[in-house]
Write a structure and sequence with these properties.
This protein is α+β, with helices and mostly antiparallel strands and about 140 residues long. It contains five helices and five strands, in the order βαβαββαααβ.
């Protein structure tokens, strides 16, 4: 399959956070990611599946790497484990740090606009998609 034929994998929004996340993927430090299940439901986007390959986009929209999904699970936000938090490659040392960082992002104006809910908030029962992946190729 050609790189241009793969579905796009976009981490955060274009800008400094995406640049940081893409750099962590390219270095091999980032092997997991978290998404709101609600985001998939609102856009009718299919959730990732094990074995799926995707092209990682940088902030300029360039395809810079290919990743393959190795595990997908949906858990309550309150049940995210330390291994997942560490494997996000963002320097988190605890689940509490991971959650604080993700709540800041998920409560941002950009995410709330994308969800169409200016008052959106998460709690322990919010369903979160936890995805593990491996880096197959860099461009």
């Amino acid at each position: 399959m050609e790189l241009d034929d793969l579905p796009a994998a976009e981490f955060a929004f274009p800008g400094p956070l995406r640049d940081q996340l893409v750099a962590a993927i390219l270095s091999g430090a980032k092997t997991s990611t978290s998404s709101l299940v609600l985001g998939y439901e609102r856009t009718d986007e299919p959730m990732p599946e094990v074995g799926q390959r995707s092209a990682v986009l940088d902030s300029e929209g360039r395809r810079v790497a290919v990743i393959e999904t190795t595990d997908v699970r949906v858990v309550r936000l309150g049940d995210v484990d330390l291994r997942h938090a560490l494997d996000e490659g963002e320097g988190y040392e605890s689940v509490a740090q991971w959650r604080a960082g993700h709540e800041t992002f998920w409560h941002s104006a950009e995410v709330r606009a994308e969800l169409g809910d200016p008052g959106f908030t998460v709690d322990d029962d919010t369903p979160v998609l936890l995805q593990r992946f491996r880096l197959l190729h860099t461009v």
